[in-house]
Design goal:
This protein is an alpha/beta fold. 38% of the residues lie in helices and 12% in strands. It has a domain of 169 residues: Rossmann fold (3-Layer(aba) Sandwich), CATH 3.40.50.720. Strand 2, helix 6 and strand 3 form a beta-alpha-beta unit.
Length: 352
């Protein structure tokens, strides 16, 4: 997300003196000391190449290139390693953001066990890092997957919902792993002087969204950029919502700064949309509009699966809100990707 997007998303938050002071303090800490990040991009850059899955590696020179990124180079120092075993940097840290985990797995490559191991061992290793360096605040990016399947009678998933994934379903490995990660954070918070802030993330759209894995909105944008058609593999009835990347960034910062320790906050949008309607919405944002192909057939009387957060806790306790509509979020994402190769030159290339 661009600076103007962040400014817009932050406008109402910065009116809160506590948030303004907190962000000012954080910027001071970034310059004076070090800020501990454990994003998948940084701590897992080598793992994909080492294991033969080139798609997991990331090109940091490409990510950091560009004039708008130049001022940030002095504030960012990459520490390369595997989140499960990285060496602890010898520095002083005030905050840690742990956002390193697999989000998708290919059963043909036996990646479900790898996903579970990465989430659990990676979280514990990063918590050990927080304990070792004495960082007082730790943000754990969890997931709405911890709730399991959303009941048909529940329009939105609140944090108080006590359901969970089916522990005998291998496809629930991500949600189960995140549940264990939250428990690990709680145990460390009870045993050591570290405040664990928990963000249960749902679905998002914006710059750097992967277009070639299981994220539907990313797949639809990719298909549209290639000239269509946009393909929906299922029947299009599941309902999802998408928070824009600039809002996501501000929500996470706010939870880190002001969230209550060991109290989860849903992070996402309540603006639900059926996947079929999402595909059509994306299709009509291209000129000319591209075709939409829905390969599945909806069963009469069968309700579509939903994955929608109740965000009232974040709204009432932290003053958070969505600053970008779904339509505007998609438009901004498309515009960003049009500037990237291969799309900026009209090349419909399968690899990027």
């Amino acid at each position: 997300a661009g600076k103007s997007d962040i400014d817009r998303a932050a406008q109402h938050l910065l009116a809160d003196p506590e948030v303004a002071r907190g962000l000012t303090h954080l910027l001071h800490e970034v310059r004076r000391r070090h800020f501990g990040f454990t994003p998948r991009l940084a701590l897992r850059i080598h793992r994909g190449a080492q294991e033969g899955h080139g798609g997991d590696a990331r090109d940091f020179d490409r990510i950091l290139e560009g004039e708008e990124q130049a001022p940030r180079r002095a504030l960012v120092r990459l520490h390369v390693g595997d989140v499960r075993s990285f060496s602890f940097p010898e520095a002083e840290f005030s905050h840690i953001i742990h956002a390193a985990s697999e989000a998708s797995a290919r059963p043909t490559h036996g990646q479900y066990l790898q996903m579970l191991e990465t989430i659990i061992r990676g979280t514990q290793h990063t918590l050990e890092f927080a304990r070792a360096c004495g960082a007082p605040k730790f943000l754990l990016t969890s997931s709405g997957a911890v709730y399991g399947r959303q009941p048909d009678a529940l329009p939105l998933l609140p944090e108080e919902y006590s359901g969970g994934p089916n522990s005998l379903d291998y496809r629930a490995v991500y949600g189960e792993g995140k549940r264990v990660a939250e428990l690990l954070g709680t145990l460390y918070a009870q045993s050591y002087p570290v405040q664990i802030k928990i963000a249960r993330c749902f679905a998002f759209v914006g710059p750097y969204l992967p277009l070639d894995i299981h994220f539907a909105v990313g797949n639809f944008i990719r298909d549209g950029l290639r000239g269509g058609p946009i393909r929906v593999d299922g029947d299009g009835t599941p309902c999802r919502s998408y928070l824009y990347a600039a809002d996501l960034a501000l929500w996470l910062w706010t939870i880190l700064l002001r969230g209550e320790p060991c109290r989860p906050y849903n992070v996402g949008s309540t603006e639900g949309i059926r996947i079929a309607d999402l595909a059509r919405e994306v299709a009509h944002l291209f000129e000319p509009p591209v075709e939409v192909e829905i390969r599945g057939t909806a069963l009469p009387g069968r309700p579509g699966e939903r994955y929608l957060p109740d965000t009232r806790r974040a709204e009432t306790e932290l003053g958070l809100r969505c600053s970008f509509s779904l339509r505007e979020s998609i438009i901004r994402t498309i515009r960003w990707y049009r500037k990237q190769a291969p799309f900026k030159e009209g090349i419909h290339d399968q690899s990027f």
